[in-house]
Amino acid sequence: MPEGHTIHRAARLQRRRFAGEVLEVDSPQGRFSDGAAELNGRRLEGVDALGKHLFHRWEGDLTVHIHLGLFGKFKVFTDAEKAPEPSDGTRMRWVGSSGAMYLSGPTACEIISAEQEEELRQRIGPDPLAVRKGDLERVKASLARRSTPIAQVLLDQAVVAGIGNVYRAEFCFLAGVDPRMPAREVDEPTVEHIWNLSISLMKVGERIGRIVTVDPAEVGAKKPGDLRRGSRLYVYKRAGQSCRRCTAPIMSTELANRRVWWCPTCQPS
């Protein structure tokens, strides 16, 4: 499932390319036909994101809520006339003078009311890419109430929005926290460190379009975008390989049906 940086990046790029345009909208698959008919010929006024949720703002105070889930994908084509025919799974397509956008396989693609959006937002935790006053205190309070492992809690979108399996493993490593530690046992300075890591590193991911958590200087690079695939992460999917900092073998186990990785030396239990 795409993590929050991917959704925020999609929102930014779609906003930059299409906002302000009157668009032709349809649903080749047919599962969004009524919604597409309502949007067709309207102006896209804006695009924004919260956690793993994306919102398209249309002329006439219409909002489309998108959640990609495990299989959803956006495809953007800069020249609409050269765009390929949509696949049978294309839920929504829009076409304008700036290009075309195809959406396929989302968990959610629906027009929602202001009340429905507010209910949704109330269920979503603080977003490191859309920080609001009091967010850190909310995260601290949420963790202090939970006896489940910290790595499991970090995947709870009601606690922190947008963190997925890659970032949670990397944040725990960088904070020196065993991912199996009960969340309420993580002290407040460490919680704050994890929150600050999520802000800084997810901003990098949103900007360059990939997850990079390794300090470039540690691998002889100048900036995150210079790191090659295989040198961008500290622990994620590196079980049995040497820790980049201490050379101990990276460990891995199942945690609430999701795999987690950690260094037993850098993240002592």
Secondary structure blueprint with pairings:
Elements lengths: L3 H15 L5 E3 L6 H7 L4 E7 L2 E6 L3 E6 L5 E5 L12 E7 L2 E6 L3 E5 L1 H10 L11 H10 L5 H5 L10 H11 L12 H21 L42 E5 L2 E5 L7
Antiparallel strand pairs: 1-6, 2-3, 3-4, 4-8, 5-7, 6-7, 9-10
Query: How many helical stretches?
Result: 7
Look up the CATH topology of the largest domain. Answer: Helicase, Ruva Protein, domain 3
The assigned structural class equals alpha+beta
Runs with pLDDT <50, length 5+?
Answer: none
Radius of gyration: 20 Å
Tell me, what is the CATH class of the largest domain? Mainly Alpha
Series of H and E elements: HEHEEEEEEEHHHHHEE
- In total, the number of strands is 10
What's the structural domain tally?
Answer: 2
Question: What's the mean pLDDT score?
Answer: 97
Instruction: Note the overall shape.
Output: globular
Distance between the termini: 29 Å
Fraction of residues in H or I helices: 25-40%
Which CATH architecture of the largest domain would you pick?
Orthogonal Bundle
Q: Beta-strand percentage?
A: 15-25%
Summarize the structure.
This protein folds into two domains: 4-123, N-terminal domain of MutM-like DNA repair proteins, CATH 3.20.190; 135-262, Helicase, Ruva Protein, domain 3. It contains seven helices and ten strands.
Tell me what the structure shows.
- The protein has a four-stranded antiparallel beta sheet, covered by helices on one side. Strands 2-3-4-8 form a four-stranded antiparallel beta sheet, sandwiched between helices.
- The protein is 29% helix and 20% strand.
- The chain has 269 residues and is an alpha+beta fold.
- The model has no long low-confidence stretch (mean pLDDT 97).
- It has two domains: 4-123, MutM-like, N-terminal (N-terminal domain of MutM-like DNA repair proteins), CATH 3.20.190; 135-262, Helicase, Ruva Protein, domain 3, CATH 1.10.8.50.
